[in-house]
Amino acid sequence: MTTTLHAPLARYAARLHADIGDRHHVASPLGAWLLLALAGPAATGPVRAELAEILGMDVDSAAAAATALLDRPHPLVPSATAVWHRPGYDTENLAEWRAGLPQRTTTGPLPDQAALDAWAREHTLGLIERFPLTVSPKVLLALASALATRISWAEPFDLAPAAGLGAGSTWAGRLDRVLRTPGRGHRGWIASTSSAGDVAVHAAEAVDRDGAGLVVVSVVGDPAVAPVDVLSAAHEVSSTAADGGEPAGRRSLFDLPLGDGPLWSLREERVRTRARGGREERHTAVLPCWSARNQHDLTAPGLGFSAVIRALTGEGTQLEARQAAMARYGRYGFEAAAVTAAFALVSLEPEGVARTAELRFGHPYAVVAVATDGRGDDRGPWHGVPVFSAWVAEPEEPAATDLAHPPEAG
């Protein structure tokens, strides 16, 4: 049964990838969504409604779903969350909200930069070396999530000449070797999708651990289709990938024309088969190795973090939000990690009372001129010696030289 989180996460992924654009990148929509979900219960009024719309579900349900993920971690996808505050900045509302966070969420005073970097490395299998934001005295509150995976394919790929990518592929001339699916252990199909039309799909599975696994689904659409629409199609077809049943939108090869196209080459041959009706369908796939390492700004209003900071700290604070992400896809396995972080920074000093005194020398007063001699600890004998003193009882008008422009330094 597909988790109820798939659709909300697919919608948030569309927001995030649209904001990032069509450059080569990897991101973790889940890493960002988790922080929004954990902060949701602190929101009220219009901010709460805004977060519910971005999360794709009401904030209490989102918080419960996030808690379930974090309190029962996946053996192949280590995860962690943290909430830190500046010492002295700990309101009653924040304390009440923190009490409802998942048990595994780290809380406490804001660490220094070295400790934040260490947290990122510890919770991403060392794949993310540095925390994506830089701590400063202005930080009031910090939220962070980390996700990582490092898996081996249940069946590794074979290698093949890059020409297998097809004559129309520009990559074929740039690469020497690519990956080809082995005789078993991988799945492939052609699917009809609502956002990208017909797409080619490949799915590789990780070695199972404790009854849990990971399926990495690759989806390619027509080159004329916008990247954000192909990404949406990938979420669409992956909705049933974890179940191992009939793929969503699968097309029969016997409904497609024979020959070469930009996404596949379809041929027919006579074979002996026990397939129903004597019509057997086979799929192989050729795809390149790839890797990516990116930093993503998450401050755009539609991504939710500005609403989160308003919910937690009110108005008058500034936002920094960023995600560091990496991934590597190869013959023998896949690894990926992301650290998502948001800072609430003071933009206005806390409200208080200020008094300003204008000092008025309107009657006789004393003057003492004291010498200084040297700097720091290396001081001469004149240092601190009062050289002149006066009692001012007869004031004068400014002299002409006082009214002129100051002389240039000689």
Automatic annotation (TrEMBL):
Organism, as annotated: Micromonospora rhizosphaerae
InterPro entries: Serpin_sf, Serpin_sf_1
Superkingdom assignment: Bacteria
Name used for this protein in its record: Serpin (Serine protease inhibitor)
